[in-house]
Specification:
- There is one protein chain.
- About 65% of the residues lie in helices and about 0% in strands.
- By secondary structure, the chain is mostly helical.
- It has one domain: Up-down Bundle (Four Helix Bundle (Hemerythrin (Met), subunit A)).
- Helix 2 (about 35-55) packs antiparallel against helix 6 and helix 3 packs antiparallel against helix 5 (about 105-130).
- The model has no long low-confidence stretch (mean pLDDT about 90).
- The protein binds ascorbic acid.
- The site of ascorbic acid has 9 residues, from helix 2 and helix 6.
Length: about 160
Amino acid sequence: MSRLTGKNWLGAAAVGAALLSLPALSHFDDKQMPQSYRQSYFALLAANFGPMVGTVKGEIPWDQARMDSWAHDLAALATLDIMRGFVDGSDKGTTRAKPEIWQDKADFGSKMDALRKELASLQKVTAGGDREAIAAQVGAAGKACKSCHDDYKAEDYLY
Ligand code: ASC
């Protein structure tokens, strides 16, 4: 396990925060469990993916052990069923999840599956240590994030 020093953690957090427009409100609300579930999930994704993006862009010094660690945790997250966070009736509340998700769950689910596959590959590619290949796979995973955001994630909270 690599250690994040205070300074590096701040750098990683800054990159993560820049890539993800962090919600102004708390992720956790026990009256909105599906919303909290999915927002926590995406926060974990961004907190691990953001510093990988920063590294391949040269904004964070390359530390292979940390790259492996982030990729490991992303692959672990890829094993979870995120659709539990999008159960029927959870479309309202504190959310940027567009109603279109519930209108075409199959399409949304297939986009999430595509992301999960890219994240599983990312761990394998990262373990290989080839920086160009890692950068390409980070790009592929980022594309999978974005393709879903374009259709299904609102800029601002909806309700
Ligand atoms: C991130 C993050 C996202 C995605 C997206 C990829 O690190 O927080 O939402 O990558 O920017 O296009």
